[in-house]
């Protein structure tokens, strides 16, 4: 299973004197985690800026899974592939529509 993990750098919030709204600056850090079916971490990418795309981070990791492995990933990794690895990916909900019951069942 591959999942991005983001966290805040702890920046302060900026207040706007003209109104009562508060603008929060979102400088984050990110890692991608590879784990097995028991949720044991088997690989952790280096820490990068949160704005870096999930697929690019996975591509740069150069991690190889054993042939015949099963890799579950979300739509943030669209287009990512590994040789001899089966990669099922959930179907994304169409904008303004719902998934069919069959598609929802496959996504589990």
Could you walk me through the main structural features you see in this protein, from its secondary elements to its overall organization?
The chain is α+β, with helices and mostly antiparallel strands and 108 residues long. It has one domain. The protein has 2 helices and 6 strands, in the order ββββββαα. Strands 1, 4, 5 and 6 form a 4-stranded antiparallel sheet that branches. Strand 4 and strand 5 form a beta hairpin. The protein is flat. The model has no long low-confidence stretch (mean pLDDT 82).
Element order: H for helix, E for strand: EEEEEEHH
Q: Would you tell me the structural class of the helices and strands?
A: alpha+beta
Tell me, briefly, the overall form: flat
Helicity level, as a percent range? 10-25%
Number of domains: 1
CA radius of gyration is 18 Å
Distinct helical segment count: 2
Q: Note poorly predicted spans.
A: none
Number of strands: 6
Instruction: Please report the distance between the alpha carbons of the first and last residues.
Output: 14 Å
Main pleated sheet: 4 strands, antiparallel
β-sheet strand percentage: 25-35%
Mean of residue pLDDT values: 82
Short description:
The chain is α+β, with helices and mostly antiparallel strands and 108 residues long.
Topology:
Blueprint: E1 2-8, E2 13-15, E3 22-24, E4 28-35, E5 41-44, E6 48-49, H1 54-61, H2 101-107
Antiparallel strand pairs: 1-4, 2-3, 4-5, 4-6
Main features:
108 residues, HARBI1_dom, 25% strand, four-stranded antiparallel β-sheet, alpha+beta, single chain, flat
């Amino acid at each position: 299973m591959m999942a991005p993990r983001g966290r805040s750098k702890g920046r302060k919030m900026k207040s706007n004197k003209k109104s009562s709204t508060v603008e929060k600056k979102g400088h984050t850090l990110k890692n991608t985690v590879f784990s097995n079916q028991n949720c044991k971490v088997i690989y952790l990418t280096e820490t990068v800026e949160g704005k870096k795309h999930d697929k690019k981070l996975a591509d740069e990791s150069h991690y190889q899974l054993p042939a015949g492995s099963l890799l579950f990933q979300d739509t943030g990794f669209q287009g990512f592939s590994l040789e001899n690895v089966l990669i099922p990916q959930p179907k994304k909900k169409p904008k303004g529509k719902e998934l069919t019951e069959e598609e929802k069942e496959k996504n589990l």
